[in-house]
């Protein structure tokens, strides 16, 4: 598509009228090519508070969704006040400490501390999500045909099942080995039973997590936002800034259909860094943009 076609404000693919400076057609989703100089701008993006229009060479389309992280913050604020009330409940109802008052107070105090930590974490995530939704560091907004989104959710589900199965088998093997070693050293069969009991506990999230993720993606609108700080895939939010998180690698997988742009990121936990992957399908006609995004973020990592 040349610049003369663009100035007519009509899509040459479906004939729909285009908004001023649109980068894709609102009717059929076809890409509206930029002038020849624009694609050479990866790496020249403003490092300040971008609104999207400053990211020349990348998509600047609107993206709206509710901030799910703020809903989580509100829920835990309510729980925190409930636990605070439970701390003083034994005194209010005359429950003796030895009859469960001390236990209730201790558990409630622990949950108050936990609530504060969760609130601080998700409050930070909510702020970052607000900035991403406002357009800061925006690189692309992609929409998908129903068949593209359905195929992607199936691919993502299979990959998550493989990852969780491997993790389950690894933890199970460690539990068996540690249990046998402690049995030999301590000579108490109970220790082995305790180690083996961890296996079914781990099996539950390993089985449920991929299915919960699959159902969430299936119910989501086929739309993705990619930014320098994270990605929103349907209703799933992946963030790799703040709280020690970081983006480690960006890989474009082209042997699948649709092609997948994978964002590998990690965050600190008590047992080291926890690795996660955000998979973003590449819609038809967006392969060049996907390559430029991958190159741009890889260059920033380097």
Overall description:
This protein has 302 residues and is of the alpha+beta class. The chain folds into 2 domains: 68-133; 138-301, no CATH class. The chain has 6 helices and 7 strands; from the N terminus they run αααβααββββββα. The strands form 2 sheets. A 4-stranded antiparallel sheet has the order 1-2-3-4. It has a 3-stranded antiparallel sheet with strand order 5-6-7. The chain is globular, with a radius of gyration of 25 Å. Residues 1-8 and 34-56 have low confidence and may be disordered.
- What is the structural class? alpha+beta
**Widest β-sheet, arrangement of strands:** 1-2-3-4
Radius of gyration: 25 Å
- Helix-strand topology string: HHHEHHEEEEEEH
Q: Point out poorly predicted stretches.
A: 1-8, 34-56
Shape: globular
Number of strands: 7
Residue-averaged pLDDT, rounded?
Answer: 79
Q: What's the total helix number?
A: 6
The N- and C-terminal alpha carbons lie at a distance of 34 Å
* Strand percent estimate: 15-25%
Query: What kind of sheet is the major sheet?
Result: 4 strands, antiparallel
Number of domains: 2
Helix content: 40-55%
């Amino acid at each position: 598509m040349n610049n003369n076609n663009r100035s007519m404000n009509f899509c040459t693919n479906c004939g729909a009228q285009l908004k001023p400076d649109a980068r894709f057609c609102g009717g059929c989703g076809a890409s509206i090519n930029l002038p020849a100089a624009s694609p050479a701008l990866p790496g020249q993006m403003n490092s300040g508070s971008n609104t999207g229009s400053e990211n020349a060479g990348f998509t600047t389309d609107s993206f709206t969704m509710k901030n799910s992280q703020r809903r989580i913050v509100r829920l835990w604020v309510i729980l925190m006040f409930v636990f605070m009330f439970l701390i003083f409940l034994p005194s209010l109802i005359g429950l003796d400490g030895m009859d469960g008052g001390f236990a209730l107070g201790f558990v409630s105090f622990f949950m108050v501390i936990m609530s504060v930590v969760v609130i601080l974490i998700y409050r930070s995530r909510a702020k970052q999500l607000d900035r991403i939704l406002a357009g800061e560091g925006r690189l692309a907004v992609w929409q998908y045909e129903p068949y593209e989104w359905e195929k992607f959710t199936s691919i993502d589900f299979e990959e998550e099942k493989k990852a969780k199965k491997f993790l389950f088998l690894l933890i199970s093997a460690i539990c068996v080995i540690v249990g046998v070693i402690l049995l030999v050293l301590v000579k108490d069969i109970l220790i082995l039973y305790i180690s083996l009991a961890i296996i079914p506990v781990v099996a539950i999230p390993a089985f449920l997590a991929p299915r919960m993720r699959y159902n969430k993606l299936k119910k989501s609108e086929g739309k993705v936002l990619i930014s320098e700080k994270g990605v929103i895939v349907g209703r799933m939010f992946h963030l790799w800034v703040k709280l020690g998180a970081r983006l480690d690698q960006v890989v474009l997988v082209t042997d699948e259909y649709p092609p997948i742009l994978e964002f590998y990121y990690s965050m600190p936990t008590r047992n080291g860094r926890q690795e996660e992957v955000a998979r973003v399908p590449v819609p038809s006609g967006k392969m060049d943009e996907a390559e430029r995004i991958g190159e741009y973020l890889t260059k920033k990592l380097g």
